[in-house]
Amino acid sequence: MLHVTDDIAIHDWELTESFVRASGPGGQNVNKVSSAVELRFEAERSPSLPAPVKTRLKRLSGRRWTKDGALVIQCDETRSQARNRDIARDRLIELIRRSLTTPKRRIATKPTKGSIRRRLQAKKVRGEVKALRGSVTDD
């Protein structure tokens, strides 16, 4: 069981880990040991997460979210399989914690009188510059 907060804990059946061969440094060890971790979390079917958290998690995870509603996190940072597993689980916990906070609603405000005046003045100056670009006539 993976504890995210005091209220939210992810059960073991919701997580699937598969180990694959990693690329990068490691010498002959790379060709022999499957040290990279692919952590799959069945977020859509998870009873641990409320519906609004699931929608925010889907938006935050981006392309890591699959069509069948699973969140896939890959990690091949270190040469140690156990360390990569811990890093992947920490990334999942951090992503879920970020999706727990509701975003602030934007309060619509009016532009100030000064900003309206400056904008109109800038438009007038720009219009005068463009008006001077016309063809030159002899007087």
Automatic annotation (TrEMBL):
Cross-referenced Gene3D superfamilies: 3.30.160.20
InterPro entries reported for this sequence: Pep_chain_release_fac_I, Pep_chain_release_fac_I_sf
One MF term in the entry's GO annotations: ribosome binding
Domain of life: Bacteria
Positions of the Prokaryotic-type class I peptide chain release factors domain: 21-37
Pfam families named among the record's database cross-references: RF-1
UniProt record, GO biological process: rescue of stalled ribosome
Protein family (similarity comment): Belongs to the prokaryotic/mitochondrial release factor family.
Protein's recorded name: Ribosome-associated protein
Organism, as annotated: Sedimentitalea nanhaiensis
